[in-house]
């Protein structure tokens, strides 16, 4: 009886050790998976500089932020136009000047992607939004800030088009594709708008 | 020997309790991770009202549904035009009438995003699809329904453009950005088309 | 004492067995979750055939590949134009010929999505990129290859437009929506460009 109890205990003991090893291995795999699982994040590339797409981007961004997501918006190419507050031509190359002059001077003069008719479409859309008490784009940008949405201006696009920090609205981060991917790769949803 | 067996057992016992605690903690972390992991879902925002992009959206949606994913399509802005079956002008504001008259009357008159030439491009694309026995957009919409794809009409866009339920095809859900995000945040893939 | 030790051991033993069962169950759930968790992958649909959007796609693709992600680019509709190296009209239907003649003959003649002005915009953008020592689109395509980015030409689009393999650059995979979804559903980020 004593012997049998002893044997049992020793066999239990080895089983216990084995189990402890298994639990330790599971713990490691779980920690690894936790590390690699999507976080409560949403990453949005705003490539388009159209009013209607900008509105869609900010409606999604502020909606996601309201639902507790950490939202990053990465403004690149034409999307930088949404963040422009003024245009400075001095110090720009000929091409950069051309591009600056032909691009909207600020968010207030963005076109719509369809039926713009030299700004009539954009004006109509803004009027329809006002009639329905929908926030204007500028109000949405302010709301996004309040909700802690991270807005990143694409460094390469800025450099390419020669856009200075003083031409853009304040409170922007600056970054490249690695900055964007750093956010996107751990996000629940990535959108290219 | 007895004493030693007793000590061993008591030490085993505390180890066993400790291990049980660890397993319970792992179980909780795992349940939490399971809760937060992507489900077999795909969420697609259909912002564009172009025939070619609508086709891409429905090819992806029906493909994903065939592969066992629960697919949601959220139609917003110009995308609502894909679901239009008729246009009612009465009761619309001036801007809403303008927009309705200048938008395609139904899925059959959607333009293509490039080389549309007043509808010739769209007609050509439809002809090429027919020649190759590719499903038409209308057949794809029907297939999406059969496969249980959830189609959601954006409430805010509908309200903005004054589009009534009777102007849209049947069997649609209605919802806002929260409805979309509710799907997107637990999806394997999110697309903005 | 002996009896009590024996009882304790037997109760421990059943606890131990129970625990082992729990660990086994956890292991199964964890393996299942690992299987279903996003891999280090990024999947990009390149639908657009515009130079600016193609650049954005390749900047993201090569950036993600540099960061250790397995990147797939799925070229469909107009996006196939980015991979074109020449145009063969013989054997094409009337519509296919029309489409081929009105589409860019190669990546070098892609338009920009805004302010193209019959190619002047694209030329200006290329000039600005050169001035800033940014890789050209063709260099980015070569870099993507070097980094092991998988480029897939959409079979259905190719068939629809009658585009032969000899009209496209080499080293492409061919596939349909299932090929794309096979990548996208296990990716960290999916984009539709």
In short:
Three copies of one chain form a homotrimer. Chain A is α/β, with parallel strands linked by helices and 193 residues long.
Task: Give the helices and strands, then pairings.
Three copies of one chain form a homotrimer.
Chain A: H1 2-36, E1 41-46, H2 51-66, E2 70-75, H3 94-102, H4 120-131, H5 137-146, E3 150-154, H6 155-161, E4 173-175, H7 177-184, E5 189-192
Parallel strand pairs in A: 1-2, 1-5, 2-3, 3-4
Helix pairs in contact in A: 2-5
Write structural notes for this entry:
The structure is a homotrimer of 193-residue chains. By secondary structure, chain A is an alpha/beta fold. Chain A has seven helices and five strands, in the order αβαβαααβαβαβ. The first copy, chain A, has helices spanning 2-36, 51-66, 94-102, 120-131, 137-146, 155-161, 177-184; strands at residues 41-46, 70-75, 150-154, 173-175, 189-192. Chain A has a five-stranded parallel beta sheet with strand order 4-3-2-1-5, sandwiched between helices. In chain A, α2 packs parallel to α5 (137-146). The radius of gyration of chain A is 26 Å and the shape is elongated. The model of chain A has no long low-confidence stretch (mean pLDDT 91).
Query: Which structural class matches the secondary elements of chain A?
Result: alpha/beta
Give the low-pLDDT segments of chain A: none
Q: Could you state the order of secondary-structure elements of chain A as H and E? A: HEHEHHHEHEHE
Question: Biggest interface and its residues per chain?
Answer: A-B, 43 and 47 residues
Distance between the termini of chain A: 76 Å
Beta-strand content of chain A:
5-15%
Oligomer: homotrimer
Largest sheet of chain A: 5 strands, parallel
Mean pLDDT of chain A: 91
**Cα gyration radius of chain A (Å):** 26 Å
Described by the principal axes of the CA atoms, the overall outline of chain A is elongated
- Helical percent range of chain A? 40-55%
Main sheet: strand order of chain A: 4-3-2-1-5
Tally of individual helices of chain A: 7
Count of DSSP strands of chain A: 5
């Amino acid at each position: 009886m004593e012997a049998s109890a002893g044997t049992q205990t020793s066999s239990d003991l080895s089983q216990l050790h084995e189990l402890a090893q298994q639990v330790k291995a599971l713990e490691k795999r779980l920690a690894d998976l936790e590390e690699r699982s999507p976080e409560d994040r949403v990453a949005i590339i705003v490539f388009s500089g159209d009013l209607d797409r900008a509105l869609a981007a900010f409606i999604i961004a502020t909606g996601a932020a309201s639902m507790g997501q950490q939202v990053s918006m990465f403004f690149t190419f034409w999307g930088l136009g949404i963040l422009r507050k003024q245009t400075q031509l001095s110090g720009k190359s000929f091409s950069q000047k051309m591009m600056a002059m032909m691009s909207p001077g600020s968010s207030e003069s963005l076109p719509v992607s369809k039926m713009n008719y030299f700004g009539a479409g954009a004006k109509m859309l803004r009027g329809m939004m006002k009639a329905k008490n929908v926030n204007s784009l500028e109000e949405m940008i302010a709301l996004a800030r309040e909700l802690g949405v991270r807005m990143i201006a694409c460094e390469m696009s800025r450099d390419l088009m020669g856009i200075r920090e003083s031409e853009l609205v304040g409170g922007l981060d600056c970054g490249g594709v690695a900055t964007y991917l750093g956010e996107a790769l751990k996000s629940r949803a990535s959108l290219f708008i």
